[in-house]
Design goal:
Layout lengths: L1 E6 L8 H17 L2 E6 L10 E3 L9 H6 L7 E5 L5 H5 L6 E5 L6 E2 L3 E4 L9 E2 L5 E3 L24 E5 L8 H12 L6 E6 L6 H7 L6 E5 L4 H7 L2 E5 L2 H9 L3 E5 L2 H12 L4 E5 L5 H10 L3 H14 L4 H18 L1
Parallel strand pairs: 1-2, 1-4, 2-3, 4-5, 5-7, 6-8, 7-9, 10-11, 10-13, 11-12, 13-14, 14-15
Helix pairs in contact: 1-11, 7-10
């Protein structure tokens, strides 16, 4: 089975679409022995899947023609697009099984499978009657390191705080947090791990701003995020993929939203008692963050949140989605 995945990354959109696409590609290779390639205008990949550059001169509505010219030709095209238009999605139609991965796009999906990998049940996707849908916690695709994590350990004190705002953090909320917490870090916090993703630009200024008291560490482009989440006592994270990774790890978190879609996802997690909602980055405050850290200090509060968080996301979503794609491809081939 020849599979082409179409996804982008960048400073303004982060790497969430690419990360889950690559996780799915590796699952397809594991489940179906699939040969997978990533087609992208901007992404370089992580070495696990070959990347085919998409020329800038190819308009979005004609990408299907570019894919049809690939050798070998794809049997399955998986589109995980950021804010697709109707024209850009329809431009991917061809004589292959088209799989759409989407969070909240208001277009009409006509596909062999629509995968909705988030917990927001208020948004209703428009799709043709023939398009099967896999959604919710069953469809959330995380990296392999989150498949079989140990139960989150509960420390009597909040001693290790994790700060992770994703692959790019385009508004540099990370820098704002460091500035707020420089003077207001609770005495119980002995270690602060600040993660900076691949597309995070102001790394040098962030590093220069970290207090030199031995409690702060800057970690860049960390591959094994799961182990840090398991070790931390609480985290400040962005909504989206990071929120789901933290939930899978059972990490009690304070979550901030970088866009409207993330705000709705954070609201679902907060409503389930699995996170504290810090609100949008535009309105988050130093006093609000300080109050949230104090709220999470008691171990019984963190323990309850950890248990509820672990119930939100069922491990192995990438494998389940891979099996559904394989079933759809086989049914299409027989038909």
């Amino acid at each position: 089975m020849e599979v082409v995945l179409r996804a982008e990354s960048g400073t303004s959109i982060g790497r969430g679409h690419v990360v889950r696409s690559l996780a799915l590609a590796r699952a397809l290779r594991e489940v179906a022995g699939a040969s997978c390639r990533l087609v992208s205008r901007s992404e370089l990949g992580d070495g696990s899947v070959p990347v085919i550059p998409l020329p800038k001169e190819v308009p979005a509505e004609r990408e299907g023609g570019f894919l049809a010219a690939l050798r070998p030709r794809p049997d399955v095209v998986i589109a995980d697009l950021f804010r697709p238009t109707q024209e850009s999605f329809d431009g991917l139609q061809g004589d292959w099984l088209l799989v759409a991965i989407d969070d909240e796009s208001p277009i009409l999906f006509d596909a062999g499978l629509l995968v909705v990998p988030d917990l927001n049940d208020r948004f209703r996707h428009r799709h043709t009657p023939e398009t099967p849908v896999l959604k919710g916690g069953e469809a959330i695709m995380l990296r392999e390191e989150f498949d079989a994590l140990p139960s989150h350990r509960l420390s009597p004190v909040l001693g290790h705080l994790l700060i992770c705002l994703g692959g790019s953090d385009p508004v540099d909320f990370t820098g704002r947090l460091v500035g707020w917490l420089r003077e207001g870090l609770p005495p119980s916090v002995e270690r602060v791990s600040v993660l900076a993703g691949r597309n995070y630009r102001p790394v040098q200024s962030l590093e220069a701003s970290l207090p030199a008291d031995g409690r702060w560490q800057l970690l860049r482009e960390v591959a094994a995020v799961a182990s840090i989440m398991v070790d931390a006592d609480a985290g400040i994270v962005a909504g989206g993929t990071l929120l789901y990774e933290a939930a899978s790890a059972g990490l009690p978190v304070m979550a901030v939203s970088l866009n409207d879609a993330q705000a709705r996802e954070v609201a679902v997690a907060a409503g389930a008692g699995a996170a504290l909602d810090l609100g949008p980055v535009e309105t988050a405050t130093a006093s609000g963050v300080a109050a949230a850290i104090i709220h999470l200090s008691p171990p019984e509060i963190r323990g309850a949140m950890s248990r509820r968080a672990a119930e939100l996301v069922r491990p192995g979503g990438r494998i389940r989605v891979a099996h559904r794609i394989l079933e759809a491809w086989r049914a299409r081939s027989v038909g």
